[in-house]
Amino acid sequence: FVPVKQEEADQNSTCGEIGRWRTVQSVSSTQFNSTSGRFRAQEDGFYLISVNMLIRHSGSSQIKMTLELGRQGLQQRELVGETFQPKPSNSPSGGFVSTLTLASAERLEPDQYISIFIKVQCESDSVWKVLTNSSFSVTLVSRWESDYNAGFVAKNDRSEIGSLGFVKVNFWKVPNLFFKNLNTPRFLLVTIKNSGLYFLNSVVVLRDNTGGTTFHSGVCIDNRIAYNGIMASKVSEGHTGIFVVSAFGVLYLRKG
């Protein structure tokens, strides 16, 4: 388990990889480079990655945070997770503070690394900085060859038209981005093959066509909404546009 905390960052107006971390709990320097902000895997396995980033900015741009997967010696990186804070409708005097949160389960192979990027629609008056108490953690949940290892990460490729009440999200890309012993079909439900504790995470991108609406995001278990399970809510900022609702947590799920 590798939690780390960011040192005070200088005011910035450029986008890129976030480094200069201060380690809260010691970890081998061969796995985590606090200067570059890269965590390098030594074992093939399922890893749980979580980020909580506090950013002070001028309020003139959308702020996007991404998790990117790379490999030692190669420049190419793979996008494995993202979230964003839309441009606010109004910004208080002295700046605007946004909290960007992202949690994801990923497969990391030996010598692959994961790091965080901040991307801003960099306008001439866009200035931002990462604040202290931001956090980044990586946990090896299970080795890849383990028989108890099961999970998937999937994205959908078609929009759903919303209305009053809950709307089921379908159109998952098949095959999933990665999976082992568990996957989500394009339209059907996910069937649990073994009872146990499962980490669930959803990042839903929404477009509000009216403004000022309250949105809820969650999961269904046996075709019923799990109100006491994974649920998140957000109110759009009074104007139309796109924004993100993220929900994650741990549930005990039974076989079948």
Question: Which helices and strands, and how do they pair?
Answer:
Layout: E1 2-6, E2 16-17, E3 21-23, E4 32-33, E5 38-40, E6 45-57, E7 63-71, E8 78-85, E9 96-108, E10 112-120, E11 128-130, E12 135-143, E13 151-153, E14 178-180, E15 196-208, E16 214-218, E17 220-221, E18 224-225, E19 231-235, E20 241-253
Antiparallel strand pairs: 1-3, 1-12, 2-10, 4-5, 5-10, 6-9, 6-11, 6-12, 7-8, 7-10, 13-14, 15-20, 16-19, 17-18
Architecture overview:
The chain is mainly beta and 256 residues long. Helix content is 0%, strand content 49%. It contains no helices and 20 strands. It has strands at 2-6, 16-17, 21-23, 32-33, 38-40, 45-57, 63-71, 78-85, 96-108, 112-120, 128-130, 135-143, 151-153, 178-180, 196-208, 214-218, 220-221, 224-225, 231-235, 241-253.
In short:
This protein has 256 residues and is an all-beta fold. The protein has strands at 2-6, 16-17, 21-23, 32-33, 38-40, 45-57, 63-71, 78-85, 96-108, 112-120, 128-130, 135-143, 151-153, 178-180, 196-208, 214-218, 220-221, 224-225, 231-235, 241-253.
